[in-house]
Amino acid sequence: MSSSLAPAAFSFASGMARAVARANVHAGVNNRIAPRLIDSLSKDVVDDIFVHALKKQTGVSLNFFHKELPVRLAHRVAELENLPYGLSAKGNILKVRDWYVESFKELRSYPLIRTTQDEHNFTNLLRSIYRRHANVVPVMAKGVAELRRELVAAQRLSELPEIHQFLDGFYLSRIGIRILIGQHIALHEPNKSAHIGLVCTSCSPIKVARDAIADARSICQREYGSSPEVQVYGDSEMTFPYVPSHLHHMLFELVKNSLRAVQDRFEDSDREPPPIRCRLSCHRTDAYLHLNRLGNSQEPLP
User: Fold this and answer.
1) pTM, full prediction
2) Which residues does residue 289 pair with via DSSP β-bridges, in sequence order?
């Protein structure tokens, strides 16, 4: 490691730790001592992680891909290692941190890609990493929920703005990382009609919305025994280039939350819950979604 970067990495890690300690003292949190990376990894690996965490994240190309991913993973490790309110000490958070460390070590140990066979093997490594991180979101949620229960029980805090801010950035970064890996993997698989990797060149938001609505209503039906109707409005011929799985996930979460809100509101009512109305439209470079979940009008949205 560069002699000029090592002190910077140490200073960066120490500064983050001091900031977290101040936040915990301010919140009155009596933390368990979280197992630190240095307790389970060699100093060289820990130094390597924090040196990469100091590097700026950049765009990627095929030749630069295997160098950029460790930088992005190292940023996430540094964040997970220094969370406030004792969150870093939770078992589920440590599990996620260790996934990122393992992926970082595998990528850092992989040699430069020089041949077609090297690229094939590297793609298989990325498939393994992609699968390893598949459950990051629910595992992180369990860790945060555990912390929230402890703080509420101790009557210390109910709102955790610092944690919410971290999660927003963490999940946004995760989406970026998974798109990079998923796109690379998809480009090395058999061609799919109207697709360039993950991107569908003629993605139909209406079709994706109907699929997402069917999935969300199925869950609502299972949980509540019934499900409000969801009406979809928009041009069925409308298409644009997008990643269908990401659009499906966004629409599914929005509709699922709307279904739950309607069911909860009308749970003890003799009235039938009104339909949820979903309108999708495009204007130049933008796409719009409008959900109306409690309106009484049966007319299409303007």
Assistant:
1) 0.71
2) 280
Query: Rounded CA gap, 132 and 130, in Å?
Result: 6
Query: 288 — alpha (psi -120 to 50), left (phi > 0) or beta?
Result: beta
Beta strand 195-196 with 199-203: parallel, antiparallel or unpaired?
antiparallel
Q: Which residues are known catalytic residues? A: 249, 253, 256-257
Question: What is the C-alpha R_g of the chain?
Answer: 23
pLDDT, tens digit (0-9, with 9 covering 90-100), for 140-175: 999 999 998 888 887 766 677 888 899 999 999 999
**Contact 34/68 with Cβ under 8 angstroms?**
no
Closest residue by Cα to residue 230 from 272, 258, 208, 266: 258
- Write the DSSP symbol of residue 262: H
CB 268 within 8 A of CB 221: no
**Residues 246/256, Cβ–Cβ less than 8 Å:** no
Write out pLDDT tens, residues 231-289: 999 999 999 999 999 999 999 999 999 999 999 988 888 888 889 999 998 877 788 88
Sign of CA dihedral 106, 124, 64, 70: negative
Q: How far apart are CA 53 and CA 38, in angstroms?
A: 16
